[in-house]
Structure formats: C-alpha cells, structure tokens
Amino acid sequence: MEKLKSYTVAIFAILAGWHLLSVILNIQALPSPTIVMVDFVGLVPGELSRHFMVSLYRVGVSILLGVALALPAGLILGREEWLDRFVAPIVFVLYPIPKIVFLPVLLLLLGLGDLSKIVLITVIVFFQILVTTRDAAKEIPGQSVMSMESLGATSRQIYTHVVYPASLPKMFTALRIASGTAIAVLFFAESFATEEGLGYFIMDAWSRFDYSDMFGGIVAMALMGLLIYELLDVVERRACAWAKL
Amino acid sequence: MSHVELSGVGVDYTNLGRTVTALNGVDLSIPAGDALAIIGPSGCGKSTLLYVLSGLVKESRGTVAIDGEPLAGRRLQTALILQDYGLFPWKTVYNNAALGLRVRRVDKMDTEARVGKILRRLGLWEMRERYPAQLSGGQRQRVAIARSLALDPDLLLMDEPFSSLDALTREDLQNTVLEIWSERNANGASGSSNGDGAAPLTIVLVTHSIEEASFLGRRIAVMGDNPGTIATLVDNDEMGDIDYRKTPGFYDHCSMLRGLLKNGGDSGAPKPDAEGGVRGEA
Ligand SMILES: Nc1ncnc2c1ncn2[C@@H]1O[C@H](COP(=O)(O)OP(=O)(O)O)[C@@H](O)[C@H]1O
Ligand SMILES: [Mg+2]
Asked: What is the pTM of this model?
C-alpha cells in the first residue's frame, strides 16, 4: 500500500510536469495529458490492447529465455576455470557490440514476425545476465565452497546450495537493467516492417500526425515497463528474501 | 593405535608457476579422544595442516592415516568448522544445521530428530526459522557447531572458529566446546550411555590465541619460524575444567606458551614431554 501511494504521487508529478510543458511549448507534437488520457481510455478496449499484448509477449518470452540460458551458463563459467579460459574471451569480444546491428540479419533469416524480435532481445538479455552471473559466481569465497566440500557435497550440490543462491541477487539487479534495454530495443525492432506491437503503434500514429494516439502508445509502453519491473520485484522478493534482511 | 597419524607430511601450493611450501616434514600422532590445539603465527601453515586432516588438501609428501587407513579424500566422520563463510545467509538456522545431513541424503525424519536435538542442546531451537543475518556472531558460530555435530563426527576440526567474536562470547563458546568434548569422552569408548556417538570425539583446533590453546588443548602443537613445521608439542593435562581459566596454573601455562611462540617455537632446554622440533626433509 505504501508503494501504491508513492506511485500515485509519482504519476501525478509526471502528469503535472507534462501538462506544464505542453502549455509552455504549445505545439501539436506535445498534446496535453488530459487529451491523451481521454484518447487512451478510448484506445484501450480496441487495438492498443492487442499491440500491448504482442509487445509484452515478445519481451516476456525473451526475458525468460535469456535468463534460462544465461543463468546456468554464467554460473558454470564462473566456477569452471578450464571452460572460462576458453569462453570468456569470446564473450568479452561480443559483449560490447550493440546487438541491434544484427537486426537486418535476423529479419532476413527469421522473417518479420515474433521470432526475429524475440531472438534479438533474448541475445541482449543473455549477455547482460551471463556477464553478471559469471562475475558473481567467481566472487564466491573459496571457504564457502570448502565448507560445502567438507560436508561431502557433490559438485552439483555445491551449485544448487551455494553458487546459484549466492549469485541470484546480482542476477536480479542485472535483469532489471536488461529489461529496460529490452523494451527500448523492442521499440526499435517493432518500428521496422511489422504491423504489430507498441513500436509499430507509436510509429504509425506518428506517421499519421496523430499525436494523442502516439502518446497513448508511449503511456502503454511506460505501463508495460512498470509491469515488468514490478513482476521482477515480486519474484525477487520470493526468491531472495534473505538478501533483504 | 592412534586415531590420526601423520608422518613426514609436506604440502606445496603451486600458483601461477610459483611454488610455496606450506607444510614440511610434519610428524604428528593424535590419539582418539584427544584435544589438540595448533598455534602459531599467521602464514605458518596451520590451516593447511587442518585441510590435510580434513582430506580437502592432498599432501604432496609423506603419509596421512586415520584409524590405520591411508586418508583418501573426504571422510564421513570428519567435520570441519571454518572462521567465516561456513554458514549460508540464504538458509535458515535449521537448514544450515541440517545441510550436512541433507547433502548426505539422510532421511528427513532422522535429520529432524538429530538436528532438533543438537539445536536444543546449543540453545538455538527457538531461532531455527531465522536467517544468519538475524543472529549475533556467537549464535552463528553455534549454528556452525550444530551443523558439524549433526554429522556425528569422531574428528572435529576447527580453524580459528571464534577469532571474530568478542571476548565474552568467545569464552562462552569455548566452554560449550569443552563441555561437548568432555561429554563425549567421559563415558569411555565402550560404556557409552548416549546411544549414538559411541566413539570418542577427537578435536583439532587451530588458533592464534594463547588462551584458547591453553583452555581447549590437552596437547598444544606450536608451529614455528621454520615455515610449515611443528616446533614443539606441549602437554596440558590440567585442562578439562571450565574453571581452569581462573587458576594460576592456567596463567603459568599461557606465559610458557607465549615464551615458546616468541622463540619461534624453540623451547631451548629439551623438555621431557616435547616430541621435539621436526625439521629437515622427510
Ligand atoms: N591456495 C594457496 N595457494 C598458494 N599459497 C597458499 C594457498 N593457501 C595457503 N598458501 C600459503 O601457504 C602458507 C600457509 O598458509 P596457511 O596454511 O593458510 O597458514 P595459516 O593458517 O597458519 O595462516 C602461506 O604462506 C600462504 O600464503
Ligand atoms: Mg589460517
């Protein structure tokens, strides 16, 4: 409830700032929030919801896939030096490349549908989570592993009881950052040669000079970001309650 | 037959092509039910010696035998307590204490019975649902002790277990360890009344505290200047009572130890009970 209160205050502050700016600038490209809200309410039951769901599906699947692939891979790289010695250089060469440059290739190979977008965003999430969990797993004190070994744990048990839980809080921090990047990249990817998703909706409204529709799409995108952020928060609080003590 | 027998044990660590000799020519025999304290300056190889006993580090030279068998890797009846990082902050007190049994796939009912009994014995039962972050330093080390005892060990190894605790808490935990050791060894190996743990409990404690070594060590191995060797082995037969700390004998013993440490472990005059400085290659 405390959270709901602070969100309400924040939303009002944003709307007030937005309103003020639209009055000062007084241009068509920045409509007042009141106009946008009225328009937004009309859009929600119609096509905006469909575009919202398409975008949410693309980001959601990408995040799940990215984590499912990167978390185990990162933990193993962090612990198995023989493998890391070989793989880490490859990772660090690929990591700084803005993955968005692969969009043309992906569009060509995987088509204009969901798949090309999902693969692109999955790759972005994958690298952020991979690098973070690898470092987190590397930082685990040798004594933690030793005390596990002294209990007679197998290497698999060391992963499940120590390496995985120890790295989880850092994984969530990285995931929060990655999900922001994921949404930004999704917008970009959806503004190309597709007719579905919030990116398409926003760019389409822009091309029609329908600025209140365009801002309706932007509001929907902000809400999607908020939804993902809050979902991550709930999952994190359940998975790493101990880290908040 | 002694419980633990080391002869000519040496350990070399190789890191980035450089070799460090951490232990050299260590001969040591520890009878069952002994309480051995190992004391010496930082970096002299105390932890390494303990890791060798636990089977976590393999000796580079010499032989290690427990109950007459050459030690090959970890041994189920050996428990190890480290100074830090032994407890996992993501596990509750209960789950931390039960971890060893869980890893060994002991069944749930049996685990509950054993862990419950030990948590009660150590005054931790009320806190079983808490996480380590919600405990004091002393309580945390109690949980570490509980986890080790749950394994029902006959050899308990401790690496500076209380060195990050304040003085009073440290004494309190030392008393607990002494009590547990006395309980396990009082009834004798055969006529044990407490069902489990018929075997006596042998304790090997690494410490840099002279008081701790004198209080908990029935014998004290002093590791000296010459890196990785045991310089002197001292007897301390008066230990075993919680009030020993308050006696003049205790103070005398501590100053004697202090003297030994200052001289790098050399006792000067040959002592009748010292097993002697072990030097040279094995
Ligand atoms: N994993 C390791 N790799 C290389 N050298 C080590 C390693 N562990 C310990 N050493 C070295 O071995 C010596 C003995 O270390 P240790 O047994 O930890 O001593 P203590 O516990 O008495 O402080 C030290 O010089 C230390 O630097
Ligand atoms: Mg040490």
From this structure: 0.85
| Tokens found for residue B20 | 């460090």
Low-confidence ranges of chain B (pLDDT < 70): 1-2, 187-198, 225, 264-282
Q: Using one digit for the tens of pLDDT, what is the confidence trace for A9-34?
A: 999 999 999 999 999 998 988 999 99
Atom of ligand 1 nearest to the CA of B11: 12
Q: Kindly calculate the radius of gyration of chain B based on its CA atoms and give it in whole angstroms.
A: 19
Number of residues that make up chain B: 282
Q: How far apart are CA A189 and CA A202, in angstroms?
A: 12
Q: Would you state the pLDDT for residue B256? A: 87
Rounded to an integer, what distance in angstroms lies between the CA atom of residue B246 and that of residue B227? 34
Contact call for residues B59 and B10 (beta carbons, < 8 A):
yes
Query: Which residue from A141, A150, A242 is facing B56, i.e. has the nearest CB?
Result: A150
What's the burial of B227, exposed, middle or buried (CB within 10 Å: 0-12/13-18/19+)? middle
**CATH number for the domain running over B31-58+72-77+154-192+200-269:** 3.40.50.300
CB-count exposure of residue B281 (10 Å: 0-12, 13-18, 19+): exposed
Cα distance between residue A138 and residue A17, in whole Å = 45
In contact, B26 and B6? CB cutoff 8 Å: yes
* pLDDT for residue A173: 95
**DSSP-derived 3-state class of residue B274:** coil
Interface pTM, i.e. ipTM = 0.83
Tell me the per-residue pLDDT of B48-64, one tens digit each, with 9 for 90 and over: 999 999 999 999 999 99
The shortest C-alpha distance from A88 to chain B (Å) reads 19
Per-domain residue ranges for chain B?
A: 31-58+72-77+154-192+200-269, 87-152
Nearest-atom number in ligand 1 for the CA of B44 is 22
CA torsion, ordered B175, B181, B182, B186, to nearest 10 deg: 170
Q: Does B47 touch chain A (CB under 8 A)?
A: no
Contact B145, B96 (CB under 8 A): no
Q: Are B22 and B47 in contact (CB under 8 A)?
A: no
Tokens 């009082």 belong to residue: B186
Q: Which helix (H) or strand (E) holds A121?
A: helix A114-138
Under an 8 A CB cutoff, do A150 and B90 touch? Answer: no
